[in-house]
Amino acid sequence: MSETKNNTGKYYLIDDAGYATYIIDIEQILRIEDNSVISVNFNVWEANSWNIDTNEVYEKSFVAQVLWKWDNCTHWSFYGMDYDPDIKDSEKDSYYHICGSLFVTRWMIMFAFVRSVMIDICGDKCDDYKDSDKELDRQLLKGYTIKYQGPEKK
Questions:
Q1: HEC string of 51-87?
Q2: CB-facing half-sphere around the CA of 43: CA atoms within 13 A
Q3: Whole-angstrom distance, CA of residue 52 vs CA of residue 44
Q4: Closest alpha carbon to 9 in 40, 50, 54
């Protein structure tokens, strides 16, 4: 027997100034009888503006809808920077403007953030997450904190 949980919280990648840079909004987690995670469905957002008094995210842009499976196999749906999954029939476009090496690095940081959160949720069940990958993630996420907000994690 499997269990599916919907709307299971959010993860924030917080920079050293206290601002969220990326958000993972967990839509669904599928587990099997022994409580092992089979797959996680989630949306990734990039924070664009913040409340200056509270540092809370004020505006965000969609990055991707993702299915992450237990074996680290992933399906990324990049619909474009103007897509909004909360708007029915939102326009899907394959365009992202990633300008300059700073923004290329930000996307690398986003991928390290996603992988770190998914390893935390699913566990490290595969041989393909090597020590060199873990070190790369540590280096990319240096100076950042990952914050979880939602129901108590299993």
A1: CCCCCCEEEEEEEEEEEEECCCCEEEECCCCCCCCCC
A2: 19
A3: 23
A4: 40
Measured CA to CA, the distance from residue 33 to residue 12 in angstroms comes to: 29
- Who's near 89: CB < 8 A, 6+ residues apart? none
The Cα 129–Cα 127 span in angstroms is 6
Q: What is the C-alpha to C-alpha distance for residues 87 and 49, in angstroms, rounded to an integer? A: 20
Chain position carrying tokens 């290329």: 104
- The Cα 25–Cα 8 span in angstroms is 8
Dump pLDDT digits (tens) for 3-14. 656 657 899 999
pLDDT digits (tens, 9 = 90+) for 67-88: 988 888 888 888 877 777 777 7
CB 115 within 8 A of CB 130: no
| Maximum separation of any 2 CA atoms in the chain, in Å | 48
